[in-house]
# Entry
Amino acid sequence: MEQVNKIFDNVAFTKAIYSYGFRFDPVIGHLYYIYERENEERFVSLIAPSEWGSGYNFKHVYTAKFCADETWEKINE
# Structure
């Protein structure tokens, strides 16, 4: 049953990331960064938290890896 729950959690996580939208084609095995704007809207970015300049005020929510089966895996940092 634990494995079934893990699959459902991964499906929900993947659906959430696709709902954020992004303007690029993700590459399998690469890391991507999920941020939240002040209005609580989330988006996926290629830019790591340490790479933003001082003029941006986005909250880094988590990092995710794009997998070969076109799902997303949350990376614990």
About this structure: The chain has a mean pLDDT of 90. Strands lie at 31-36, 42-45, 59-66, 72-75.
